[in-house]
Design goal:
- With 296 residues, the chain is α/β, with parallel strands linked by helices.
- The chain has ten helices and eight strands.
- The protein has helices spanning 4-10, 14-17, 26-30, 84-92, 114-133, 147-156, 187-191, 201-207, 246-258, 281-294, and strands at 39-42, 50-54, 62-68, 96-100, 135-145, 177-181, 232-237, 262-267.
- It has an eight-stranded mixed β-sheet with strand order 1-2-4-3-5-6-7-8, sandwiched between helices.
- Strand 7, helix 9 and strand 8 form a beta-alpha-beta unit.
- The protein starts with a helix and ends with a helix.
Length: 296
């Protein structure tokens, strides 16, 4: 169930909401009827170690999106149900969704390395279950929102992890394309930005305090792994008051300088909630990017 804490932590102030046109609030999204997934798979023993499967009508094989929710890497703020509305929208259009959850920094075993290992195991469980659900995983597109944008990019970057990292494995699920919706890929920049909606302390809880490892960002922050060799689309709302747009423009510049194909798409009249609401211009743009990435 979506966590009420997300509403109180990230909701925009009434003064902001009077802008023209008005921006969506979290209650606008989570207060509507919630669609249900077709199946749920456990990839571990914790209640958060789950992935929901959203299957279109027909027999497949279905083009597949790997979806990663945000919520500041914190389970008490959000879980995978935040993505249900856009997952359902893709299902209706013939695209399967593998919507993953993971232990946040506020749960036993979360933080480093648990949050990263969970995201990795959830992604690799897609490959293990692809035949069962008739999922085409030859060209997986990863879509992540907010903190999930960081994890989606990180999943695509796993082949670049340092060999000595406890997060590295030999054959991670190949990801062909990443779409980050208001993401936070650069953890160092996020930790240095007190105006980001997640705050700065959560990054330390995610990666570990300085001194706990030789370099706490070497295997956790996406810019340290560039180039990742995967096309990347960054969709940001021009009026996003939760994730400053400079965190998108700054990462785009880093990725392009490293040789990756990274494109920033700034959507007007769009805040943070619009990025995961199926009726919005931001989601229409994202769907077009998903279809292009899937070569549909």
């Amino acid at each position: 169930m979506f966590r009420l804490a997300l509403i109180t932590l990230l909701a925009l102030t009434p003064a902001v909401m009077t802008a023209d046109p008005p921006l969506l609030t979290w209650p606008d999204l989570v207060g509507r009827p919630q669609p249900k997934a077709d199946a749920t798979i456990a990839y571990g023993g914790d209640e958060m170690q789950k992935a929901d499967v959203w299957l279109p009508a027909g027999t497949g094989p279905f083009p597949t999106v790997l979806m990663v929710h945000g919520g500041c890497w914190t389970t008490s703020i959000a879980d995978r149900s935040l993505m249900n509305w856009i997952a359902d929208d893709l299902r209706k259009e013939g695209i399967a969704v593998w919507n993953i959850d993971y232990r946040g920094v506020d749960r036993p075993g979360g933080g480093y390395p648990g949050t990263f290992l969970d995201a990795a195991m959830a992604a690799d469980a897609l490959a293990a279950n692809a035949a069962r659900f008739h999922l085409d995983i030859r060209h997986v597109v990863a879509v992540g929102h907010s903190a999930g944008g960081h994890l989606a990019l990180w999943l695509a970057a796993r082949p670049k992890l340092p060999k000595g990292s406890p997060l590295a494995i030999a054959n991670p699920l190949p990801i062909a394309h990443v779409i980050s919706l208001g993401g936070l890929p650069d953890l160092e920049a996020t930790a240095a930005s007190p105006d980001n909606g997640c705050g700065t302390e959560v990054v330390a809880r995610l990666v570990g305090a300085p001194g706990t490892r030789l370099d706490i960002y070497a295997d956790t922050s996406v810019p340290r792994l560039l180039p990742i060799g995967v096309p990347q689309d960054l969709v940001n709302g021009r009026e996003d008051r939760v994730i400053p747009i400079r965190l998108g423009t700054g990462y785009e510049e880093q990725a392009r300088k490293a040789g990756d194909k990274a494109i920033l798409h700034v959507v007007p009249a769009t805040g943070h909630v619009e990025l995961v609401a199926p009726e919005t211009a931001a989601w229409a743009e994202t769907k077009g990017l998903i279809r292009a990435a899937l070569k549909q």
